[in-house]
Each structure stands twice: as structure tokens, then as C-alpha cells.
Amino acid sequence: MQPELERLGVHESVELVFPPSELAEFLSDLPVDVAVIDDDEIDSCDAVVTLEHRDAFLELEWVHSIQAGVDRFPFEEFEERGVLLTNSTGIHDRWVGETVASYLLAFARRLHRHVANQQERRWERPEWDDGFTLPGTTACVVGTGTLGSGVAEVLGSLGVRITGVRRSGDPVEGFEEVYASEDLLEAVADADFVIVTIPLTEATHHMFDAEVFDAMADDAYLVNVGRGPVVDEPALIDALETDSLAGAALDVFETEPLPEESPLWEMEEVIVSPHCAAFSEDYYRAVGDLVRENVDRAERGESFHNRVV
């Protein structure tokens, strides 16, 4: 059943990514009332655009997540209540791809060490053979959907050989070779970089564990821009501390914010970013375009784009 929309709320939780007022202003030309709302105003809306979940959303007609990942939303309850859930898959591919490329370039050209040295006013050149170039290296992208394909496109343009992992193992454009998920250990064995772009599900929780890190080369790097719990963090820390891996770039973590006591903060070959790989000045516009399209579809009685539930 199509939702009947009169008032659309932009929930204050999107503030963690962009000002909610920017999105509300961008959508002010819609044929529905659009307003920035807090938790106390949810029941005044028919639909909401949000980053976080609130139980009060279960009384609405439609919820749109500004992220592609929707593991924080209770699917079964949404289905039981007849609440539509849509996400923002498809808008982050280039942005995340460029962030991943920046991680790889930092490791290759030792930029992360120069930045750390600068903080201590230390003039310290790297060893003559520390640096390398990306052409000729291999990146195994685990997750060949929209996000993984965006990463593959950007890295491919830098001369990186791209392989992938997906459940079926079927070929995907932009990937030189694709492995089935059951062949993950084989897939990561010869990669210089292993890039995690898969969503969090019961099947992917701690998919990257000690066995996977043992299968990776000891001069390989792990990059996680998917979801934190996909990686067994204690196992990763152990692999890094025992030099079983060369390093890691992590944008997502099992606990966020990353606790102050985490050893990841102080590891020289680890780059920590605060779950912001997709941040861009155009984020709210891209989300707004998706919302506008679905408001139009609701008026025409058509099925919603990016519908999850």
C-alpha cells in the first residue's frame, strides 16, 4: 500500500553527517510539508529521513535512511507494522572509493608517517625501500555491490589490479577476477590490499577473523569501510601486533566512537577515521534527490526506489 504523505520530517540525528536544515531547505519545494524534527515531534509526521532508529518510527508510513547500511533498523517490526524502509545505496560509491584510494596512497607514499612526524616536529625520512607505487598491486574488494564497484572503479584508474568476492562468484564488470564467498581465504591470499565493503548481517558478522588474517600476506593491508563488526577486532589487533599484517585503514569499528583505550590509536601502521568515508559537501543533495524521487513515486502510485522493507 502506498503511503499518504503530508508531512516529512528530517530527524535531528542526521546532524552527525550534515545539517538537517540544509536537507529541509533543499526539499522545501516538495508538495508536502518538510521540517526538521526531534524525538518529540516524530508523531507529527508521516515519513522521516534519519540516520538513527527510533521506536516511534514504527508508527509512520515511510522511513528513509541516509546511509546504505540499515542493520540498525528492525526489519521484522517494520514489516509487521507495514512501514516502508528505503536506504541511500548508490550515492556513496565515488566518495568512498576516493577515501579508500587516499588510504592506499598514504600507505604507498608513507604520508601517514609524515603527518605523524609533523605533530612532533620530527624530520625523519623513510627508509629507501619503504615507499612503493600502486600500479601492479592487487586489491581484493570483498563485496562487489554498488560500494565495492565504486571502490574498484577508483582504484582501477590508479593501475591497481582488482579482484572481488561475492556470494555467487559470478563475474562483475570492473573486476578482473571474482571469487565466491566460500573461497575467501584463497581470494585474500595474494592481495596487497583487502578492502571490506560488505554490509553487516548474521552471515558477515566477524567474517574477517584470525583465519582470514592468517591467510593474508604479512605485507598486506586491510581496509574496512563496510561495518565494524564484520571484522573481529581483537583478532585484527593481534595480527597487527604480531606483524602478520603490514597495517590497516579503518573507518568503522565494533564500538563507535573507538574507545580511548583501544591499541589501534597508537599503532604506526594503522589509519583511524571516524566513520566518515562517505562524507561530502554534496551528501545532503544526493539524499535529497532520492527522497524527492520517492515522494514523486508515492504521488504516482509507483513502487519506491531503494526499498529495503
From TrEMBL:
<dbReference type="Pfam" id="PF00389">
    <property type="entry name" value="2-Hacid_dh"/>
</dbReference>
<dbReference type="Pfam" id="PF02826">
    <property type="entry name" value="2-Hacid_dh_C"/>
</dbReference>
<protein>
    <submittedName>
        <fullName>Glyoxylate reductase (NADP(+))</fullName>
    </submittedName>
</protein>
<keyword id="KW-0520">NAD</keyword>
<comment type="similarity">
    <text>Belongs to the D-isomer specific 2-hydroxyacid dehydrogenase family.</text>
</comment>
<dbReference type="GO" id="GO:0016616">
    <property type="term" value="F:oxidoreductase activity, acting on the CH-OH group of donors, NAD or NADP as acceptor"/>
</dbReference>
<keyword id="KW-0560">Oxidoreductase</keyword>
<dbReference type="GO" id="GO:0051287">
    <property type="term" value="F:NAD binding"/>
</dbReference>
<dbReference type="InterPro" id="IPR006139">
    <property type="entry name" value="D-isomer_2_OHA_DH_cat_dom"/>
</dbReference>
<dbReference type="InterPro" id="IPR054891">
    <property type="entry name" value="Dhydh_Halo"/>
</dbReference>
<dbReference type="InterPro" id="IPR029753">
    <property type="entry name" value="D-isomer_DH_CS"/>
</dbReference>
<feature type="domain" description="D-isomer specific 2-hydroxyacid dehydrogenase catalytic">
    <location>
        <begin position="49"/>
        <end position="308"/>
    </location>
</feature>
<dbReference type="InterPro" id="IPR006140">
    <property type="entry name" value="D-isomer_DH_NAD-bd"/>
</dbReference>
<feature type="domain" description="D-isomer specific 2-hydroxyacid dehydrogenase NAD-binding">
    <location>
        <begin position="102"/>
        <end position="277"/>
    </location>
</feature>
<dbReference type="InterPro" id="IPR036291">
    <property type="entry name" value="NAD(P)-bd_dom_sf"/>
</dbReference>
